[in-house]
Sequence to fold (698 residues):
Amino acid sequence: MSPRLLDRGPTGREIASAFLVCLVPVQLWSLISFLREVPAWLLQMSLWDIVGAISYGQAFALLETAVIFTPLIVLAVALPSAWFRQKFVAMSTGIVYLSAGWFVVAHLNDARVQALGLTRRLLPYLGLYAASSILVSVAINRSGRIRSAIESAVERLTVLGKMYLLVALAAVGVVLIRNL
Amino acid sequence: MLSTPAPRDTGGLTRRDLLKLAAFLPFLEAGRQLAAKRMASTAAGPSGQPNILVLVFDTLSASNLSLYGYPRRTTPELDRCSERATVFHSHRSAGNFTTPGTASLLTGVYPWSHRALHIQGTVLDEYRDRSLFALLADRGYHRLAYTHNIVAASLLDQFRHDLETLPRVGDLALMDLTYAERLFPRDLTVAVHGEGVLTRRGDTPSGSLFLYHPLSLLGARLLRRSDDRHRERFPRGLPGAHDLRFLLEDAVDWTIEQLSTMPQPFLAYLHYLPPHDPYRPRREFVGIFDDRPDPAPKPSHPLSDGTSTEFLNTERRRYDETIAYVDGELGRLFRFLTSSGLLDTTYVILTSDHGEMFERGIWNHITPVLFDPVIRVPLIVWEPGQRVGRNVHTPTSSVDIVPTVLRIADVPIPDWCEGQVLPSILGEPPTPERGVYCMEAKGSPKLGALDVRSTAVISGRTKLVHYLGYGAYDDVYELYDLEEDPEELVDLYPARPGIAVDLVEMLSTQQVKMGALP
Fold:
């Protein structure tokens, strides 16, 4: 990547804090889902195996966060600076949390989503999602109050994000140890 | 005036040429059979020990096989092949689903001992070195195992160190969208548990917030395309499970290839998933039983899941079609075994890990009940060169496979083994008063006391089932006379508990093994 292109992107500090905040819902969802299985696993697995199974989920969540976060960096580089780059933390946080809300709804209606399949019938929902994302982006762009509210939330969530990052890294370690 | 028609251009081949070629076909076939026989004999090991081939078809209920008297002709090939085999008519799996059933088959002990009680469960560490494969370690056998079923793969993975060949489940798949087995082979069972949460194999939402839906929708599309590509031959889609699709035909081809080239003597354990649901037979088997009457419905059981009779009848027909499809492929495998001469040097054991239910409001095998359709499975043994068929009616169990194989291989049977050598095999006499057991205990902890469980004991003509810890259906006994009432319709226990005294005693003697492990 040329230095000029790098200049167009967000700073390392911005990327770090936005990434940590985006990590929270992904890790939290994964943790809740896996903890739901623990009572059944306690019947048949050792504690180390349960830690192992949860670790696969947490390690995957770290990868998942990276996968969804990368397009946001690309957007920040690609779009005019005033639209995205200058409000990177607020914009990426807003989009990720809005998407999280949509995906939670999808999880709660999984049978319906699976019945729709990758067909044209999915398009209206994708359209709604795109429209809501644009709406949130415009609101964050236009409203300084919304931006500052998000940024102050980010400051608090970063601490939680650091904790989750530690958990995720420990999970990666557990996965590695189990597969040595 | 009639004119002689000009000879037609057939691209160089006339009808006469084709007839000439056809005349050579029998010689070609004879040559192929000779070559196969030669291959089998040249591959024979120096020890002179017989080969042992264990064929397990998942979810194959004896109740639905014409070989065992089922009115629909589901197994014409098996009926024919078993004319020169020993057919066991009262054979039960030790569990009512894959994990306990397979674990008992491979270790020779009941579920309360090996404790592989749960879906994707594994045996206790002490049984890792007590498998069929371990017990034949020093006898010069080449040991191969394969399963289509990811649940059984966890068990085979535990015995990996005693196997010369253990292909992955996905190795025989046309399409494999699973990852745990590929990425984490050293930690298979736990990784599969993790993958199960991410891909939503249970009832709870997936553990992947953002990627589950895009990936699952894409995966479903890929699987559907794969099904569509084979729609002509498989109108209901390809056989498979979870995110795997495969053909039984490929598995049988692979088996033939392995058996042709494997060093001898061999012990091959091959576990094929069909006729496990989804029931997807090849086109020629679809609808073959649609004009046959459905069995009379049975009354619902207190532990029923309330499935409608109409659904059960439809699924039963599809299951029967799938059995007929499996039977066709089994016939092909047996034609190879015969033509190659392997049937003269090999003990072939055909069985299943559990059965399937289509009655009393219960569908499939994830159920606490232990009625015969879900635990009575086929057991057919071909001894090398056997020419006369035999029938055994005394109760036998899947825990008997290990001691029988050990006797065949001339290996001492260890004290901890809970099975017996199968009657009539190598002249073994039957034990008429013997009780065989079956257990389901998914709701109990692996290492703790098995307080939520169903246990059955079958001795002679009677069968006692004890249900424990199922809410309102707690500490309930059911008793059936299998000779007078093979459909298990009349529970004799409430009126005549006295008949069950011996069977209750038999269950009590095993009680201590169902406690918490030290």
Summary: Residues 3-178 of chain A form one domain.
